[in-house]
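A quick aside before the break. I want you to see a complete sequence-to-structure record at least once, exactly as it would be stored in a machine-readable document. Don't worry about memorizing anything.
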Amino acid sequence: MKDFGELLVFISENQKKIVNILADGQLHSGTELAAKMGVSRSAICKQLKYLTELGLEFSAVTGKGYRLKTPLQLLSNIEIEKYLSSTTESLISELEIHDSINSTNSYLVDLSHQSKKTGIVCFAEHQTAGKGRRGREWVSPFGSNIYLSILWQFQNGPASISGLSLAVGVAVIRALKDCGVEGVGLKWPNDIYWQQKKLAGILIEVSGETNGPCSAVIGLGLNFYLPKDKAKSITQDWVDLSQMITDNSVNLRNELAAALLNHLMPIIADFEQQGLEDYIDEWRSYDCMKDKDVQIFMGEKTFTGVVAGIDNNGLLLLADEFGQVKAFASGEVSFRKT
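That is the input. The structure line, written in tokens, reads:
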């Protein structure tokens, strides 16, 4: 059994104070920071170096001080709860925001092995080992993006929630629309795209009995602001919301976090009874792969063809060069470069 304390990477109170002071993106002198913190200027320099390693971008102006290159919109329980619907509030048993954690998904997967609680929501400002599909790393700098996981208990086994990732994708699109983000599409089975660039990814991990109670951790990583130097390891085209919108509202990140929960929680709670049918047509309306040339990678095999949409069970339909259509339940899909 894992000790959950080992999973967390704590940020000191002084480091939190520095982040909160600099979050406005304005210049603050070393003398000012040291006075507010009650420490030496050299101690401030050491703390800033540590925070830089978490992914924060600072600039120093000689004689004037330090500032963040991009203002931070830190997550807050109080601010998120302001925007939650009464239905959503009733479905959430716990709402946690961690300064730093290995992975929101890993944390809740481990918790699910010890507890049968449902409706636990976990956000993080920073992940040391963020998880993407097929074991890939999800780049997770501090305070920049949305790292969210939800633990939910289902009663009838993994088969009863087949297609959940597609419904979750619909919920994410709805939330983005609520925040004024348009033109976003869904790439089967788990990605949110904008102009053929990845904006967000969904990762669902299920454990439990084949035909009985099971736990699902529904994870979402969404690029809000991704510093280019931190994205060097990403091997696919990507985009973040800062490139797509002009709204610099001081609280937009908390509003988006709440909008995501307002759409995700009811869909997750009702999915076992409703299934994919209620969301399939809407998913199709957001399909950004239909009629596109793609490659599907399954182990050592590669299939090429044109996407013909998805069937009523959420399987991907691929038409080969002879017009024959094959359905895929899984696989790594990539747009073919022209």
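Two observations worth writing down. The chain is about 30% helix and 25% strand. The longest strand covers residues 197-208. We'll return to this after the break.
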